[in-house]
Records
---
Amino acid sequence: MKHLRQLEDQSVYILREAYKHFNNLAMLWSMGKDSTVLLWLARKAFFGHVPFPLLHVDTSYKIPAMIEYRDRLAREWRLNLVVGQNKEALAAGMNHTMGRVVCCTALKTNGLKQLLEHKGYTGVILGVRADEEGTRAKERYFSPRDKHGDWDFRDQPPELWDQYKTTFPPGTHIRIHPLLDWTEINIWEYIKLENIPFIDLYLDKGEGIRYRSLGCAPCTTPIKSTAKTVDEIIEELRHTTVAERSGRAQDEGRGMELLRKDGYM
Amino acid sequence: MTLIETKPSENLNIVIVGHVDHGKSTLLGRLYADTGSLPDGKLEKVQAICKQQGKEFEYAFLFDAFLEEQEQGITIDTARTFFMWKGRQYIIIDAPGHKEFLKNMISGAARAEAALLLIDALEGVKEQSKKHGYLLSLLGVRQFAVVVNKMDLVGYRQDVFDGIEKEYREFLGQFKAVPLQFIPVSAKLGDNIANRSEQMPWYTGATVLETLGGFQKEAARSEQPLRMPVQDVYKFDARRIITGRIAAGQLKVGDHLVFSPSNKRANIRTVEAFNIEPQPTEGQAGQSIGVTLDDQIFVERGEIASHQEHLPSVSTAFRANLFWLGKRPLEKERKYLLRVATKEVDCEVASIHRIIDTMDLAQQQGSNTVNKNQVAELTLRTKTPVAFDLSASFEATGRFVLVDEYDIAGGGIITELVHDDQEFLREEARRRDFAWVKGEVTVEDRAQQYGHRAAVVLITGGRHTGKSFLARKLEGRLVADGRHAYLLDGENLRRGLDADLSEEERGETTEMARRYGEVARLLTDTGLIVVSTTNPFGLAYQEASQAIRTLVHPAPVIAVHMSKTEEEPPPNTDVVLSGPTDFDAATARILDELKRRGVLAQAIGAKPVFQYSI
């Protein structure tokens, strides 16, 4: 438990730094386990309040249960929910069969960029973790994006001790990553410790399958698992050697590298 | 071999540093593979990419997630990977050794609790190895081991290893760094990584894996005196919560806290938390917490809370060791933003004492600039007083970064307090504030009643520039607007309060300014906006305004400088008026500045909601 409290202290510190330094701040919430833990940490940091809007980039292909869960928590926790959607691309019939990277870029990356531009957010908090996949392992806690939302991973600012990059030229924005040091197991341990409500898609309901990572319905496949409780998930993760995002189609080949350079979350 | 670990009881951040091509990624790849820590398919995926590109598989590729990196064969940025071993979760920070990427190595090392430093057995001790050793020490990473890699390329010879150990130990000894262990390894072939080498029976010390296990968690800083830099003040609901991360020591409900440099004091009423039952009553080093106080004092981000027995230093100058990473060189007398813990303040480089060559620690003097990747000893001077500690006593409040334009461009540790000319007055103010007797009416009550906070508007400038006229006009305007303002004229002090002074004594700025400052301090405590000029001090107005600032601190001082022609205003001037003065426009500018500084609420007549009061 002590290690979870240490991670919590660090994340809370980062969230408070973000809130102090960015006047136009927002947090991405995909309703998955990570961004929901992040949302919970915001309530920790701000003593039960969430003093910035939560953004959901809706691709329209999300699993319906996720949307129900989103609206319920938004109501119960009195969240300021902002939903964005690349309507133009959807009207033109964008879907995963046009190519996964193409579809992710249009509906998620560009959907996000449109939302950021429209609302003028200069700081965006995201729940990415270093252990998820290679490109995220390279991230800073405060990571600048240029005018096009692109990430220059070759020239990242130094990050010293608890001092982060909080000033930036006009037209650019900063991505803030309070969960970088958390692992998948830490997330579930913390959900258990704090009794955080999560979507039951992560649990096996008797069919011997569950989702380990949640994305759009067509591009996310469940894994074989009989874990029916958080304890069983933690136990399973302690013994698995399968990558967390093995069920996420966009990770194949160089997918995530290309997507993230262009500003994917 | 698959050894899956269960429940980690603690995390340890390890950084791996070393010269480019000395095999850091290979070491990591080997460590993961030999401890069964790789996810299924990872090895196969990398092998497939290698085959596709017609390259021989290397363990290093496992960690070079970007294809570009594999093409160049160097790790571009700090990557973090995780593995569990014997009840501990290691967060491995792979920091690149390429000269261009020193800032990434520093970013990696700054968040590490222990380090592995790699040296190539074939190449021996190179410039980068020395620089890395020195920087680890400067960054406060005191726990580290030296891994001598590629022993296979030197025939596993003990004399080669011994030679490197001797040379490098001597170098590290110059700044008192002592590694836990020197380990001869071949990362490529797996010697002394997870498994003991059969090729080097002469080495009986710990393997890399055993050495990791021997690293200790950072010593508890809870035993030190309390340091809690204020991060923010929240008023989301009825509670007014002071938040911060406890950098050292501990606190509990009922403790008497002193905030430096403002010298504000109050007792802790509650410790606030979300979803923790029962509500906590204490906090200790490392925790991000929130407290409420029994008195509604005005404290702001950047102040350091401590107990009265162990106060931090307060000054406008300190000496430091700094490493520079900026795109353009650090220049003497140029302005930078200084960040010490949560405090941000403008500063300038008062002097550069010497540049330290990390290769041989030779010192170069008389330079006015510090170039990228150089280390220097210098003195920094801040615009307003800062609370800090020497890094030898307190890590978190004894180090800082400098921001140049938008970027963190350098970092360093504070080695010495530099006394400034305000030291004695600051001490007087501290003693006086600690003993200050308060009535029942709080400062918050007055601010609510008056609709504004207290402040001092101080008009400086040479003779016959219109200072008095502007002061009168401003007082009149403020009062007409319904504010509580008062013109403090030096003449009135001279014949009354200063009547005991001889003519000669009245000519001495120091004592006159001290008395003036103490009167202004009393008036601000009544909640007034004090309008004043430095007329009584003649041309010694710079010295006098410094003294007044120190004594009325932390009440805001709005400094207005008037001159007939363009001239360099004194430091810290807020409003500059040069040439023929339009007094109405000048008054409006001062009112704007008062609004900007939060002294006046935006609308006249509206009862302002104060998040804080002074």
---
Amino acid sequence: MTRYIARRLLQGAGTLLLVMFVLHLLTTVAIQLNGNPAQAFFGDKVATPAQVAAVEERFGLDDPCFDQPGNPCLGPFAERLGQYARGDLGTNLRGREVADIVGAAAPNTLRLFCVVVVTWLALGMVLGSVAARWRGSAGDHGIRLTSVLIDAFPVFVLLIVYRYVVAVPLNRWSKETFGEDSWPPYWFRPSFDPAHPWATVLVPGILLGLAGSAAFIRLVRASQLESYAGEHVRTARSKGLSEPRVVVHHVVRNSSVPVVTAVGLTFAEALGGAVITEGLMNIYGMGGVLWEAVRNDDVGLVLGIVTLLTTVTVLVMIAVDIAYALLDPRIRLGTDD
Amino acid sequence: MERMTDMDRTLTPRPLAGAWRALRRRPDAVIAAVVLVLFTTMALAPRLFTRTSPRSCDIREARVDPQWAGGAHPLGTDSLGCDVLATLVHGVRPSLLLAVVVVGVALVVGVTLGLLAGYYLGWVDYLVSRTVEVFLVIPLLLAALLILSLFQGVDLGGGTFDVILLPAIVLILFSWMPYARYVRASVLETKNLDYVTAARSLGASDLRIMVRHVLPNAVGPVTAILPTSVAGIISWEAVLSFLGIGVRPPATSWGIQIEQGSEWVTGGAPHILLAPLVCLVATVLALVVLGDALRDALDPRLAR
């Protein structure tokens, strides 16, 4: 097991390095083709070459290779890796440390993800189990239709409708019904309130979770159907165990391994959804900061946050693989990888 | 009767022909196809649906309510006085073209790489698999935000392809991996089957074996994910355009319209937002339904 983890960590470190290199290459090519993002610092104002040069130096863009298309700029890459290793993610256009911003924003993103994962698991396990238990029934078909409908409403559309059409009247209604200081008006606030982070993150999180839950419903249904057809379930039934016991101990439990790992695998996708959610709902999280950075043309901040979030994704994938190996002995004992 | 159709579905030499027959029997798939044909016609010939130009805007007629079939502005006008229906109809082309181009190119790239990796294994496979792994961990939206914001200021001109060029490149770069994975898996499954060995011992070249004998087995699973992929790209485009880094003005797209409309919902003109939103949902829903039906039709395990 230790050997498996060590190997997986090593492999992950390699992937991480490659990912950073790809991001670096893309940025470099963009800068070489498009001219310098340092110009954005000045917005519409005309800057003197000396001013531009000063800004370039501050953002580490002063290397001549950024003016030579085709040059992979390995020097600045090594320099940047060194900075990352020291925990320095660069600064935004106003000179604030990206690490600082991340420290302030990350807790809200974590809150959002908590709500999302709970929604995924709750919807996926309940609806998927019901659909598998009564396969072919009206309920099964209804759940299937629901999951197709969920797929048809991208999280972007859900949030736009919620924020601009539903939230305002709902907020007004709940204020009138429950009073200014009760919880419901905070739940339905159309934008984030740092004083009540959990309450204002709840509904956007549920919507984001809802948008991703279709895949979970299908996965739970498929893996439980496989369990129902399995020999261990037939054995359990034939030795006279009650149906609820068979369902809970032999079907749900056995089919929860792929579900747990799917949480990790959908992480990358959910991260994209989180950016949209936080951006649209003004949540001060990593995604919200990124969204604003794109709007303000703040390339340094965009690069810092994208690098960090990608790193987190790699770490999550490694964690998923290790969890999978812990849960399923066939993986860690297998010799085929 | 039912058994007969089941049998000829499994015996049919071309899986797509069987899928086509199965699809025609499903009313939801037929309705979805009709919706898609409608929007495709809109993209190809926008003038069939509206004679108003989306650029002829009269600010004095801003935010007119929908007048439906009778009036000059059937779906009303937006905040600048442009006809909503005209903008909508002319916005279909960039959105659909982008989605089709992205999925088409990504498909070719993914299938080629997957085929080579699965067939030759060894270092080719190592290279492709590692590349897939690296690109998979970079979330598509994050990469798109990074690259497109770097290219925000570039002027590429206003031609049909120019307005979608940048988002197309970025989306292709980060969406070919699933195809490569599916194809690689089904090549691995197929390439040691008896009929492939027979073809090889008859002296068929690698290329011929790959294209004629191995690839057709991968067509099923890949086709099943195509409609959903197109739907996915359409909604990504809406997000990117909403942020101002997708399809470029002066071209319009549903994402740009949604962005403009979102400010006016509480200002008494919800139709500016709702019109493009309804179209977006209708298209995505049609594609998802079609994808769902295709998945059933192409998966022999579900046919029984």
